[in-house]
Amino acid sequence: MRDVAIVSFSQLRGDPEGGVPEVLMLVPVVLEAIEKSGVPRKQIGFTCSGSCDYLTGAPFAFVQNLAATGAWPPISESHLEMDGAWALQEAWVRLQHGDIDTALVFASGRPSNSDLREVLCLQLDPYYLMPLWPDYISLAALQAQALLARTGHTEKDLAEIVVRARRAALSNPNAEISGEFTASELLQAPYVSSPLRAHDCPPISDGAAAMVLVAGDRARDLCERPAWIRGIDHRIDAQYPGVRDLSVSPSARLAGEHAGVGRGPVEVAELAAAFSHEELILREALGLGDEVLVNPSGGALCSNPMVATGLIRIGEAFRQIHEQGRERVLAHASSGPCLQQNLVCVLEAD
Amino acid sequence: MAGAVPTYKLEFPYKRSLGPIVGAFLTGLRDRQVLGIRSAAGRVLVPPLEFDPETGEENLEWTRVGEAGVVRGFSWVEEPLPKHPLDRPFAWVLVQLDGADTNLVHVLDADSRAAVEIGMRVRIRWASETRGHMSDIACFEPEAG
Amino acid sequence: MAGSEPVSFMQQMVSLEYKLRASPVAVDFARRLCAGTITGHACPECGLVYTPPSGFCSICVVPTNTREHEVEIADRGTVTAFTIVNPIQYRGQKEREVYAVASILLDGASGTIGQQRLGDVDLDRVRMGMRVEAVWLPEEKRKDSAAMGAGLASAIHHWRPVDEPDTPLEEFAEHII
User: How far does B64 lie from chain A, in Å, by closest CA?
Assistant: First the structure.
């Protein structure tokens, strides 16, 4: 395998007015990621992006986003209707070909334009599930209930995860929610879908993120402390929630094994656990003990720009190595109902 | 400059081809019976899938299962959304129908959250008119007695 | 309806509502348009003039979102491409008569505006290179939609030929699609 590193990362919290077009959210982010990388824009070998036209509310909306890269003369690029973490995986595969050394990855999402509880039904099977319009919070709640029933964890345990995440988010300027709370005050809120309360669910956030990948020694020349992608894997569980044990995540476990999580100690894990209970399922699946610092950014519970969330987890993991001096960090992204798809990425310092 | 944000509507009127497995299951619902599919290992999938999700195996065998079963998981919704199947507080449920080895996702019409528990027996309430659609099962209801 | 035929199709209606939030750049453009002026943004690096403006140059990736980037564009220009439409009658179709739409390269702009309705013209006479000008809606009829960042059609009813020599093909050859 060719060694590929992340050398820069940039992220933007969406404007609360919501009037800025998605492409204008991306322009400053893409420019900053490129500038920090030291790679001239015209020399980037491959561009890969993630966004979702159903979130934007316009067919082929992703084509407009490409303008943020200055795609003239034509560039080599690809787009996924998925979280940008999968765009990063595609770019990593593309760099393995060996004919190019650099890639730009970006993602953007503005779920605030629509009702996610309806729009996300479109990711479900159209015959058995979609006709019932089971919203994503209710499906997550079925998973949370299954977890609590199997493990004996309580709603207070879930609230404690939220308390820790919101406290961690105090130092994250991109967080939508942060602050000091106590579990007992959170637990006074009513259920949205039992056993989940509003605090157990992610906020609706708009946002964008971009990063630059560089292969081989050139990454060391360009970046003081690049984050090397030493393992990356993506696995999928059966889609229909009734055919699997929702309290566990075999796909996350497999992705972790194939990404080589267990080959060394993990200092920090940035998990795309958008719901509080998902952190418990993922910790178990990935074998993360109490010694692992989970989501020092506050994670997706505090800011969840759909389809950029996973790429931001990888960006936060990059920061841990590049800025915080960590040696080995895990990043995770998820897609689909009830953690159906999971991507695990292991980043290491030199 | 206050005022409601204007909106627009995107509509996609799809006509979906069902194929031999989903089509047979929905035909069964129209005729007020529930069909499952048995894998070589003997596991009965309800609703039936075109292949066994664990082994990828096709060529499965049809079998009829019961209209009643056991709640294996639930989530209570106090404030239904406009597109939810019921317009009063209800529970999303995972129901293992009698004779099935997997759970069906649907809704349960119950009086309150306190009236729902894992392991309770529930039964299909059929829609007054059935047409070959998931909504032919109007909902589940607690089994009498 | 308990028929005996197997069920082989299923109707599915997906209906989703989205908020329409105008971008500040589009709102600015629409306000000036309602007042009778077409505006564009000039890129400070390459000089290309975009109308309607998007707030940045998509070639140089440079923001063009302040007043100093704004330029006025003429309400006349050259037809670079066109099509004559015989409207097929489907549900929701509002057009009944044959009509022409064109791409127009406005004087002072670097790119064409698309899907512009032509009028006051014999359809057999529509041609590439033809000079046209805007026929504005009366001021009171210009849709009160500036705040939503509406496009050219909210203020311009159609484009009609003007009595000028055609623009030679070589002057707009790069703009025919």
Answer: 18
Domain spans of chain A, in order of start: 4-115+204-222
Interface of B to C at Cβ within 8 Å reads 1, 5-18, 23-24, 26-27, 30-32, 129-133
B130 interaction partners in chain C (CB closer than 8 Å) = 1-2
Q: Which chains touch B (3 or more CB pairs under 8 A)?
A: A, C
Report which of B32, B47, B30, B21 is spatially closest to residue B101, judged by C-alpha positions. B47
Q: Does B23 touch chain A (CB under 8 A)?
A: no
pLDDT in tens, B91-126: 999 999 999 999 999 999 999 999 999 999 999 999
Nearest to C16 among A18, A20, A119 (CB): A119
pLDDT tens readout for residues A38-96: 999 999 999 999 999 999 888 899 999 999 999 999 999 999 999 999 999 999 999 99
B107 contacts A132? CB cut-off 8 A: yes
Angle of helix A276-286 relative to helix A155-168, nearest 10 degrees, comes to 90
**Residue C145 has what pLDDT?**
72
Sketch the domain layout of chain B as residue ranges.
19-142
Q: What is the pLDDT along chain C (177 residues), one digit of tens a residue?
A: 456 799 999 999 999 999 988 888 888 999 999 999 999 999 999 999 999 999 999 999 999 988 899 999 999 999 999 999 999 998 889 999 999 999 999 999 999 999 999 999 999 999 999 999 999 999 888 876 777 778 899 999 999 999 999 999 999 999 986
The pLDDT score that the predictor gives to residue A17 is 64
1.20.1260.10, 3.40.50.300, 1.10.1740.10, 3.40.47.10: CATH of A4-115+204-222 = 3.40.47.10
Residue B11 contacts A, CB cutoff 8 Å? no
Residues (pLDDT < 70) of chain A are 15-18
d(CA B90, CA B76): 6
- What is the C-alpha separation between A4 and A96, in angstroms, rounded? 8
CB distance from B55 to chain A under 8 Å? no
B104 at A interface, C-beta within 8 A: yes
Distance CA A128, CA B12 (A): 18
Test C61 with A70 for CB contact under 8 angstroms. yes
Q: Do the chains contact at A142 and B10, CB–CB below 8 Å?
A: no
Residue C60: strand, helix, or coil = coil
Tell me which DSSP letter residue C52 carries: S
Angle, helix A250-259 to helix A276-286, in steps of 10 degrees: 50
Please write the tens of the pLDDT for every residue from A248-270. Answer: 999 999 999 999 999 999 999 99
C23 near A19, Cβ under 8 Å? yes
